[in-house]
Design goal:
5-stranded mixed β-sheet; 21% helix; 16 strands; alpha+beta; 9-stranded mixed β-sheet
Length: 266
């Protein structure tokens, strides 16, 4: 009986060691491997798709329609399941998410190329332009400076970038089809409205040479007006440009509009 027990124990030990060896042998070696990742930004209003010219209502009961919707994303960083952080190259790490450039599904693609292969669990990005990039001057902006100017995302070099542009009209109990222009940004170095957000993925994003995974990021534009602070257009938030208070409120609200809906590991 003892011999049988010892024999079974020996066989079990050999089996476990064999399985461990097989698992080790089949683990992926990602050394030197790179791949691409697509961030798909999908703007909406609550649970509705965003559509230009559609009338929406804020928590204050004011209605609004938008004809321009665009914002800046920068400093994209990815965190893997080992806690390592990959930062996209600085010279390429700034993008304009413009609703006008959306596909038939209303998604705006940001494709990150040649990033380190890994199993990623989080993405972090900034909304707007940080002070270090701004301080690098015109030379430090590279080709993006021209792009931003062409897209109407700058006031002038003295005051810097518009981090977001929401243009349209609104109506309230006292006004009908009044102008609505939300042009939040930092004001030189005196008012810093740059914010960052970190989003967890519902499952690991597998970046590999033979894969091109995608992350579907929902952006609830309604939260720009009804996020941490609900604002009224009639109370000074119909024209947001360089004021320290109104731009700060909108910047904080803007940092909370994003969430990851799902990921694809194609």
């Amino acid at each position: 009986m003892k011999i049988l027990k010892y024999t079974l124990g020996l066989l079990l030990s050999i089996f476990i060691a064999s399985c461990s060896s097989d698992d080790h042998d089949t683990m992926e070696d990602l050394t030197g491997q790179t791949g691409s990742l697509i961030l798909k930004f999908d703007n909406g209003i609550g649970n509705q798709d965003f559509i230009f010219g559609t009338t929406y209502t804020n928590f204050k009961g004011e209605t609004y329609q938008l004809e321009t919707l665009k914002y800046l994303i920068s400093n994209v960083r990815l965190t893997d399941n080992q806690g390592n952080t990959y930062t996209y190259p600085e010279e390429e790490n700034i993008f304009i998410v413009s609703e006008a450039n959306g596909n038939a599904a209303g998604e705006i693609y940001i494709t990150l190329n040649n990033i380190d292969a890994a199993n990623y669990t989080h993405v972090t990005f900034g909304i707007g332009v940080d002070q270090e990039r701004y301080a690098s001057g015109a030379d430090g902006q590279g080709d993006f400076l021209t792009t931003a100017q062409d897209e109407g995302m700058m006031w002038s070099w003295a005051t810097g970038y518009r981090f977001m542009r929401l243009d349209g009209t609104y109506s309230s109990p006292t006004k009908t089809n009044a102008a609505l222009n939300i042009h939040m940004g930092s004001v030189g170095t005196s008012v810093d409205n740059y914010k960052e957000t970190t989003l967890a993925f519902p499952n690991e994003v597998l970046v590999r040479e033979a894969k091109e995974p995608s992350v579907h990021i929902k952006a609830d534009i309604a939260q720009v007006f009804d996020g941490l602070t609900s604002v009224s257009f009639d109370a000074g938030y119909a024209q947001v440009h360089t004021d320290e208070i109104t731009t700060g409120v909108i910047a904080t609200n803007m940092s909370g509009i994003f969430s990851v809906h799902h990921v694809h590991n194609d």
